[in-house]
Structures are given as structure tokens and as C-alpha cells.
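pasting for ref. prot 1 ->
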Amino acid sequence: MAEAARGSQDSKKSLDMVQLRELLGELVQRKQADTLMEVVFGVLLNAEKVIEDQAIEIQHLRKQLFGRRSEKLSPDQLSLFAQMLASVVAERPAADAPSDPAAPATAPKKKRKKPVRRPLTPTQSHEILVPEDERACPECGEPRCTLGHARSLVIEYTPPKIDVIEYRREKIVCRACEGEISLAPAPAERVIDGALPGPQLLAALTINKTVDGLPLNRTQKIFARSGLDIPLQTLNRWEGYSHQLLSPVIALVRLAVLSSDTINLDDTGLRVRDPALQGTTRRGHLWVFVGRKYDPTGDLSKTQEFVFYLYAPTWHAKYPEEFLSGCTAVLQGDAYRGYERIADPNLGDAVPKLLAGCCMHARRPFVQALEARDPSAIFFVERFQSIYRVEAEARTRALTAPQRLELRQERSLPILGELQARAHELSALPLAKPMQQGVTYLLNQWDKLLVPFSIDGRLDIDNGSAERRLRPVASGRKAWMFAGSTAGAERFADQLSLVSTADAAGVSPGSYIADILPRIQAWPHRKLDELLPYAWGAAGEQPAQ
């Protein structure tokens, strides 16, 4: 009976209340007090752990709903956590204490910087004169001369203005013989033959949706307030034609990503209306691929970044796998299992051979554990902060990729070794849910996390570049909520690819799109790469035609 009780204790999670009551009643009848106490104590411990895990999960969900999303911890925050948990750490067994006794318990306080007003360049200038009755000197009556001006700035807002421009093209003919009639050339601003929209308006439709999260029906209302009432179907048709014109450049962005040296990838959900579901929506996915082409000298400041978004109806790995077919870049992402097949060298030569991990994902559970006041997390959060300080130093010093790899091996690899050793120590102990997730993730992803520190200095230590490119989607879908169709989702992904690449190139997406739209039809096909954002910006934002 004792063996059965112990076996039932090991599988107590699967016991329901009826089975537990029967077991306890049987133990009472047999007067096996020791076994009874053991079973009850085991059930209570399990219930306590479940309640603790649920409390931590509720706290995390509340933070996701109402708190800030940033995972950055200031030195003041870390110091406050350390002070709150100091007494708890002192009462914990030695196994729960940090393995490095010299590790600082608190971080130095960082001085708060005073806000500094950015310099403003006046766009208009108005001179205010002294009134005539005050221009004479009150002492002698002579007119006073100008000494100078007291300057002040006022920031004003002018609502969006829509201009309806009329082009009057001259027609000439010979009065003597009434021969051939000549007509002045059509305006260069004409993008769609026989249609009204100019390039600035078409660019605004794309920017409003991809950057500002405004669906076309809200853009229609904005235009109406400015005095121009355009049917929604017309705006949708204009946007579709603009996308069709830009599609050759978008295809070049896709090729640039696939030919990159490294690719960061991530995904997010995207609701799409499905007519088969009677007006409801289904969940699709938007994959982002951030490709980087590095300068041969290793100068990271000359890196070119290209961004491409791929819409997929499901979260299946076959979609990024098909997209990356024939690509040999180094991949970097999170712990999604589908990446293992994409980067499997056994599939052939034309596949990515390496998959790098993400320190940001490895750090995240420990931050959550620290917010849940688990003292075991302090060690990990402090070590990860030290690693990111090394990265900040490399950026400040403008190190090349080989130099950054050397700095990482010298300063960061020993810290990673401490993290691995501590994770192995804690893996044998019962831990709260966030700590357990963090330790498991760190150990399972260890080989991938080492890649940027031991093999390739070109790679970032996390997948933040891809996650940041998903922010416009996450913020925008709160406004437009869902895509109107699968074709609409694919069009949105294409437009966002061009806008994000222009942003990465440091050029204004609106100015860039408005400039290339009227010229792309007549542009030589073999020179289309001159219209890519990097070439467009390098040519002074006006490539020669």
C-alpha cells in the first residue's frame, strides 16, 4: 500500500478529487498515518506551486495588457529589486545564492539627464515693428533707429492641404496652311493615364496604411475634411495600381534579402477576412526577413539592410522554407522548431548552414522572474546586462566585425560561461515557472546562442532587428484590425517591405515613393536597381534618368 501511495504521489497532478478522496479514505481505514501525511503534504506542495505559477502568469498577463512592453531595466530598477529581495536571499539555502560572491548586489545609480530642446529651423519669419507713436525718443523727440531684434519661436500646425492642380497644355497650329497641330507634353506628375491622383497622393495612401496604421476608410475621411470627397472604391483602385507600379522594385528588395550575408527572421499574427466564414476572420501570419549585406572590410557602419514581409495563411514552417529555398545566408531567430529544418545542412548545399540564437529571448524569462520577485533571477539579469554593456561599448567605439568578435570573446564569453554553469546548477532544483522556462531555454539553445560570440562577429547577439520591424504591424492592426482579403494582406506585406527598406536606408519613405512612381514605367529595366532605396539615397535622392 505504501508503494501505491508513493506512486500516486508521483502522479498527483493527474489525480482528480474523487480519486484523491478514495485514496485518503483507504489510508484512514488502514490507519497508515505516515503515508496519509505524505500524500496530503505532497498534494499541498503541488497546489502551492500551481498557485504560485498562476499568480506569476496573471501578473505577466496584466503587464502585457496594462504595463509597458519594454524589457529594459534601469540600474535604479535593478537596485530596487535587489533591496527588496535582499532579506529573502539571506534566508534562502546556499544553493540559491549567486555563484559569484563578488557580483554586485546593487547597480550604481544613473544620473537623470535634463531634457534638451532640439534646435528648430524657422520655416517662416514675421517682423513685428514698434508702433509709430513709440518710435520717437521720449527724451529728445528724435526718431529712434533699429538696434536689433528679440527673437522667439512659435510652433504652429497647418492641417493637410489638398491641391487640385489644372495643367493647361498649349496647342499650336499654323494659321496660313492649317497644318499639323502640336500639343505641349503631358505633365511629369501624371502617374496613371486618365486618372486624377498625383504621386504625392498615391504615396500618402501607402504611408498612411503601413506607417501610420490608417486604413483607407479613415484616409477617405481625412481627405473629406480637407475638401476632397473620393469614394472608397476609387481610393482602393488607386492604391492597387500604385502597388502594381512598385512591384518590380519590391521584387528587387526580395532578391536583395535572399542574397544577403545574414538574415534575421520572425513572425506575428495577422487577422484576415474570409468570405467562407460568413463575415468573420481567420488568423494568418506575417513573416519578416531582415537581410544584411556587409562591407568586405568589416565596417559595420556600411551595412545595407533590406526588409521583406511574407504573408502566409498558417504558421507552418514550409512558407519560410520555400521563401529561403536556395539561400545560403546565416539565419538568426528565436527557438521556433521549424527553423531547425530550414537550417538543416543535410538537405543539400543551397540551404542556410547556420542558425544563430537570440539573447533577448534567453533573457526575457529571467526578467519576468525578477518582476515576480524571484531572487534567483538577479544573477542572470545582471550577467545579461553586462553582456549588453559590451555591445554598447562596441557600438560606441565603432568596431569592425572582427574587432567586435574579439571583444566578445575576451569580455562576453566568460560571462556566458557563468550563465551556463549557474543554469546547470539550478536545473536540478524545483523552480518557479519563469525561472524554469529561462533555465531550460538557455541550456537548450546554448549552441545557437554562442554563434555571434564565437563564430561570426557580424551578427547581433539578439533578433531585435526583426522584432523591431514587426512593431508597425503590431501597432497598426489595433487600428485596422484585419486585412480585407488574402490579396489585401499580400499587398500590405509588399508595401511594408518597400517602406521598411527605405526607412532602413535612412531616406524618407514618402518622398522616395512619390519620386519613383511617375518614372518607374519608363525606367530601363536593366537599371531598376538604381531605384532601390540605398541607390536612390546615395544619388542625392534624385537618381539620374
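and prot 2 ->
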Amino acid sequence: MNKGIKLNTLPQELVNQIAAGEVIERPASVVKELMDNSIDAQATKIEIKIVNGGIDLIEVSDNGNGIPQENLPSIFKTHTTSKISSFEDLNNLLTMGFRGEALSTILSVANVNLISKYVDSDIANEIVFKDFDNHTVKKAARESGTVVSVRNIFENIPARRKFLKSAQTEYKKILDTLYPYFLIYPNISFVVWKDSKKVIDLRNIPNAKADIVEKERIESLMKEDFVKRMVKLFYDGGGIKVKGLVGHPSDHQKRISNQYIFVNRRPVWDNGIARAILSGYERYIPFGEKVPFIVLIDINPDLIDVNVHPRKEEIRFLNPFRAYSAVEEAVKKAITGVTSFKMDTPMINIQRDGKIYTPRDISFKSNQSGSVRDSLLFSKEVFSDTGYVKSIASEKSEIEFKDEEQGIRNIFQIFNKYIVIEFDSDILWIVDQHAAAERITFEKLKKSNGDSIEKQNLLVPYTVQFSESELIVLREMKEFFSEFGIEYTVTDTGIEISSTPVEFVNTDFKKFFDEIFALSEDISNLSKEINKLKEDILATMACHGSVRSGQYLHREEMMDIYKKLIVCENPYSCPHGRPAVWKLKLSDIDMNFERTY
């Protein structure tokens, strides 16, 4: 006879620990939940203290309305909330925190202490937990608001604690969580302490309203020039309002950074909205490039579901197409206005530093007879297919660097872009001067052990500003860059470069480091992936430290590039895979002109 299976009722603490796996993933999750509560309490000042990446301590204090003494024990019970009482309330919710899971799940995975002074009370009260179900409430000293201290996260769950990353990585995740709050609430002052050092101090902006993007707040937070050129968005129709700021088309970049989406003031990420924003830039930026944006969408709460993600990081639109169309239209209208031309009639617009920015049609068109490459009359031998680099570099059959071809009859430059070399053996080379210089610099860096790099000490340090999260990576990679001749000191707001390889003297280091950061989807992993990404980093360095396209060259400089290129291990392409040399035989040129004599 089979015995029945005995069922166990799980203790509430274990239930909360299981639930915490969805709600509390890492220290940044704790910060998010506590920030939501402080904002819902109508705080105008919030202070965050982080110790050891939040693993040892997270403390969030505010000057909000506080919590009545009689409610202190209840707020730590599962699904206890003042925000909702029915499903209809959930549909119309505009507050940040609402599930009533935050404090209960945090308590189940960490040591929690809370002191609060309710706005209508004369004294503050503190709740102290001896264990999950054992607590005491006593009087405490506090002028206003609430302070929540969370210590030793996951200490009682070793299996989860071991999955936490380094303190620096966890701190970077916390900053990623905090930045949206800093942007969307300019009416609140924020202070961040990292290991007892004040790292962020953002004063509230007088007369600023919540959910209005203020350039002053963005500039003080991001400290980058592109903010001054950002373009205002506005759209209002069909129950959807779109506002915010988007990057000027001239500020496009390779990496995804400084991109924020808010729906009804809630920081979320929605791939459809992100694609709609980029669609608004169609024809104005190169394909695959990214732009910074801070987009706010106000929509009837009935038209979205905010409860689809345990940590409230995603939403679902009842009619996604309507939302995406509204965003795309808002971006198109804003970009068209700032560039002063119609979509179908591009015109020149003068931009920063006297440079001319002309929107481009980036679609690739072919003529009637064939592809783009065919229309440019490329040699069929050289450009036989898209596998050019692999086939040429491996077989080395199309461009041979033979001794008999090195009797140079003539060498000159065209378009300040290409070097044309005519050999005595009736061979013509067209060399892409930038691609060739990249290859030369790349192999030089790759073979370097640090000592062989010729350095240039700068009389005045070159200063570049970065965000706090970027500075974390730059601190960790300082030794790596030093090995290749780039010496810098990390300050509170950026870096001061004191020495560079001689080829890098005129480098735009802001752009240079942005391209380095773009090599990894998560820049916090860059320092850990240095060995894997080393050649990509060196390729980026080679690009910035080489002769540029559009640069006039003297004959001696052209000869120097030629002589150094022919001794490279791979003289056929730049380190990014683009062709460096196009070889033409006199017989091929004659054939093109149907000349037989």
C-alpha cells in the first residue's frame, strides 16, 4: 500500500527568501526598492551610502513623510502596502513601489534596521529585528523622514551570495540604477557616499518639477558636451504625451550609453521604444550608430501593464504600435527642426566648432548594371566576394609584395586620402593611407612590451570628463593603458592624461575612450575581458594614433608608410578588416579601355 506524500507548509521567512530571488537579485535591487519608497514618501532630499559595493551596507535616508509608529511592524509583512487594495487600483497606479514585497524580501536576505519620524509625530521610532519574526520598536532620534540600513546582503544565503560580483561591479550596477532617478527628479537633491567618500552631490533645481528633464541636472550628472546640443521632444495625441531630450545627429556614437526611457515617471527599458527613437533618426546618422536620449512617455495607466516584471523594469503596452509611432514622430519632428531641412530635401547645417554637418542618405543603392562594388569598377580578382579579407589574407595571391615590384617609378597622393604608387613592373597600387597607417600602428603596439613605445610627456595634462561608472573602469584599466604609453591620473570627475605615444598627441581622447567602452555591451566587464578584447582595444588605439583620411602627406611620409606597410605581417588590411591596398596591373587597365596595344 502506497503511503501518501506528506505536504509541508513553508515558513514565511523561506517563502520570502524564495520570492527575493525575483525581487532582490543584487545590492542594486535593494537600492531601487528603497529609492521607490523614499520618492513615494514625497522626499525632497535623499542620501545613499554604499559600503563594499552595497554588499556590506546600503543605507538610504530621506526627509519624506515618514511612517507612523503603529505601522512599523506591518510594513515588513508580505504584500503589505498602502498603494493598492484592488485590481482596479493596480491598473491606475502611478506610484513607484506598490507590491508590498520590498521590505519583507529584503528582511529575509539581510540585516535590516529602520528609523522613521512620521510627519504628524513629535518623536521618531526605530524597529530592531533580532530575527525574522522577532522585533522591538523603541524611540529614536531623527528630525524627519526615514532611514533604512541594510547590512550583509545574502549572508544567510551563501548560495546566492557567491553569485555576487566584485564590489566595483556591484557599485557600478547601483549607479546604473540610480542615474534614472537623478534625471527624472530634478526637484530632489541626491547625495551618494561610496566607502565614506562623497562621490555625487546633486542639488535640487529651484522650481523644477518632477518628470521634467532639466538640462542643468543632466550637465551636472553627465558632464559631457553633447548635453548642450540635445534637442527637445514634444508630442501630444491619442492619449500619449512624449517629451524629453534626444541627442543631436552629429553626436552619434558606436556604443549604447546615456539612453533612458521613462513611462509615467517609471524608469523602464523597452526595445520597441528604443528602436522607434532610432527610426526617427533614419537618414541622419549612419546605420548601426547610437544616440543618447532621455525620453518620457505619459500614457493613460489603463493602456499599460506595469506588473509584468518582478523588479518593475519593464512594462507592456496595450497598443504598442501607437506608442512606438508617437515616439518616432516626436523624434522626427525634433530632428527635422534642428537640422533646418525637410526630409526629402537635405540642406547643409552649420554645427559646433565651425564644422559642417550634412545629413546623409545612408541607404546603399546599386546602379542598373550591378552592385556598388561593380559600379566602382573594382577588380573582380581583388573584390570577388564579401570574404575579401579572409581570402586575400590567407592566400596572399592577389597582392604580392615582390622585390621586382618595389622599383617605384612614381608616388603621389589623391584626394588627401589615397596613396598611388606606380612601379617599374607595370603595377599600380592604390593604398588607403588611413587603413595602412592603422595596420602599421596596430602591429607596432601588438609587438610592443611598453619600453619600445616612444612617449610624449604633455606640458599641460589633457583633461577628459567621465561619469562615475566610467571612472570605475578607467581605474581598473590604468595599468593596461600605461603599458601602451597612455599615462593618466583619475580624479573625482574624469582623468588627466600626462603622457601619450607620440602618434597620439592630437587624439580626441573622449572619442577614443568612448570607442573603447563600445567594445563591450557592459563596460563594467571590460577590465575582466582585457585579454579577450586586447586586439580590439589595440585596433581602436591604432585607429586614433594613425594618419587620418583627409590628411595631406609629403612624399617622404608616403614612402614611410609604404616601407613600413610591406614589412607588416598582414599588409593587406587594417586591423578592423578593411582593405588597405588595391592592386591593378597595366593589362587590367588596358582591358577596361578595350586597348590591345
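Residues 28 and 174 are 4 Å apart (CA to CA).
The two ends are 103 Å apart (CA to CA).
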